[in-house]
Design a protein that fits this description.
Number of domains: 2
Number of helices: 8
Order of helices and strands: EHEHEHEHEHEEEEHEHHEE
Structural class: alpha/beta
CATH class of the largest domain: Alpha Beta
Radius of gyration: 18 Å
Distance between the termini: 49 Å
Largest sheet: 5 strands, parallel
Oligomer: single chain
Length: 233
């Protein structure tokens, strides 16, 4: 089986050389670019399997590049950022990043995130166990089309938001623990990172709830997890 092709986009030359070397040691085929403009040209020539994208790039910044990668290339993107305090706001733009890793990062942690995202992207095309249409009150989730409608209105969800909502919808009315959601949606590598769930639940509530501060669809069961409750328009 061919090794996954990873495109690393970062303006730090030393980091590019070091990380590309370690990616290749881990069995990946690594290609690098110093700017978003160069990376878009490289990806247009040969689409990678995954893009590692620094947010703080010169010229076109990482968030604008992310939008263009999503529109033109359609492959998983993992954001690299040193701005931990701004991370929630950055991801809140909901341009479709599949994951993020904060700098400075541990190489083993980064490789685990890459592996999880690649594994998840391999599961999507055939539908597999996520196929079918689920109706939860006035909420309709189509796993094959990867769409969600609320009261007949199409919602724009980021990839992980969709997967999280789908996981809850598969067990509608039942409490799903944070650990189970992490394992199902993000993979075992994310055990012990509940903040990922908290942030995505908040974003989903902003899109699904009439009053996100008093949720009725996405209900918190304190100390356990979350439950999706059917609501009618």
């Amino acid at each position: 089986m061919p090794s996954a092709h990873i495109l690393l986009v970062d303006d730090d030359a030393l980091l590019r050389r070091s990380l590309a070397f370690n990616l290749e040691r881990a069995g990946y085929r690594a290609e690098t670019a110093a700017s978003a403009e160069d990376a878009l040209a490289v990806a247009a020539r040969e689409a990678p399997d995954l893009i590692l994208l620094d947010i703080g790039l010169p010229g076109m910044d990482g968030m604008e590049a992310l939008r263009l990668f999503r529109e033109r290339i359609g492959v998983p993107v993992v954001l690299l950022t040193a701005r931990r305090r701004e991370l929630d706001e950055v991801l809140g733009l909901e341009l479709g990043a599949d994951d993020y890793v904060t700098k400075p990062y541990d190489l083993d942690v980064l490789l685990a995130h890459i592996k999880a995202v690649l594994r998840r992207s391999e599961r999507i095309p055939g539908g597999g166990e996520t196929s079918g249409v689920l109706t939860v009150g006035d909420l309709t989730i189509d796993a094959d089309a990867h769409t969600v409608t609320l009261g007949g209105k199409l919602l724009e969800l980021a990839p992980r938001e969709f997967d999280l909502l789908h996981a809850l919808a598969l067990q509608v009315g039942r409490v799903v623990s944070v650990d189970d959601l992490l394992a199902q949606v993000w993979g075992a590598e994310y055990a012990g990172e509940p903040q990922v769930i908290y942030v995505h639940i908040r974003w989903l509530r902003e899109k699904l709830e009439a009053d996100p501060t008093h949720p009725r669809r996405l209900v918190t069961v304190r100390g356990v997890g979350y439950r999706l409750e059917p609501q009618e328009a």
